[in-house]
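[Discussion] Sanity-checking designs against the backbone

I'm trying to build intuition for which residues belong where. Below is a structure token string of 200 positions. I'd appreciate it if someone posts a full sequence so I can compare it with mine line by line.
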């Protein structure tokens, strides 16, 4: 295919390859020249889509936030705990995106696409906490957002890095077991829809 890959297929291939490398070897291992070789184009072909490594990683982070926001929005109509579960599921299923999204020193903070995608993600978390606040279940909405985000982000990170397993705290078997553990952990913070903290 070579130099003919100059359209959206090349952009998608570069982003997909970057996510795979980040998931496997970390953000520091992402090299735009190596990615170009991997997808079968010259090292300069990427410039049609990304002017630099920062541009590529920023686009990957924006894509990740859009995927995450969509997952959170789908869960938001049920129970606020399910928003947290969706967050953990996203981190498990998109590890390359996830690690890049939260490595700010490799991203362009002025990028409008990334800012909009981040805002969309945050709006779902904020909306869930606002609903709890309106129901009288939290007194300090700002702190509640920090607590909710910290819980699910920390849980996702511990699971992704093997630290849950290393401490003997990972569920025994099955992908759904990890999500059930996340559901019970978030229930301890905000409880079930009926308001009973800790009920599964």
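Best answer:
Here's mine. Compare freely.
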């Amino acid at each position: 295919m070579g130099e003919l890959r100059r359209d959206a297929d090349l952009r998608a291939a570069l982003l997909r390859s970057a996510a795979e490398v980040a998931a496997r070897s970390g953000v520091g291992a992402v090299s735009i020249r190596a990615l170009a070789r991997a997808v079968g184009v010259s090292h300069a072909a990427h410039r049609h889509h990304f002017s630099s490594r920062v541009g590529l990683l920023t686009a990957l982070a924006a894509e990740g936030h859009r995927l995450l926001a969509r997952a959170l929005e789908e869960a938001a109509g049920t129970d606020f705990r399910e928003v947290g579960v969706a967050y953990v599921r996203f981190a498990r299923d998109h590890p390359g995106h996830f690690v890049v999204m939260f490595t700010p020193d490799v991203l362009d903070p002025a990028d409008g696409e990334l800012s909009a995608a981040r805002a969309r993600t945050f709006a779902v978390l904020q909306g869930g906490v606002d609903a709890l606040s309106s129901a009288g279940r939290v007194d300090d909405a700002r702190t509640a957002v920090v607590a909710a985000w910290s819980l699910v982000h920390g849980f996702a990170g511990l699971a992704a890095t093997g630290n849950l397993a290393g401490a003997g705290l990972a569920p025994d078997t099955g992908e759904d077991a990890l999500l059930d553990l996340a559901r019970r952990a978030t229930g301890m913070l905000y409880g079930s829809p009926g308001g009973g903290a800790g009920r599964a």
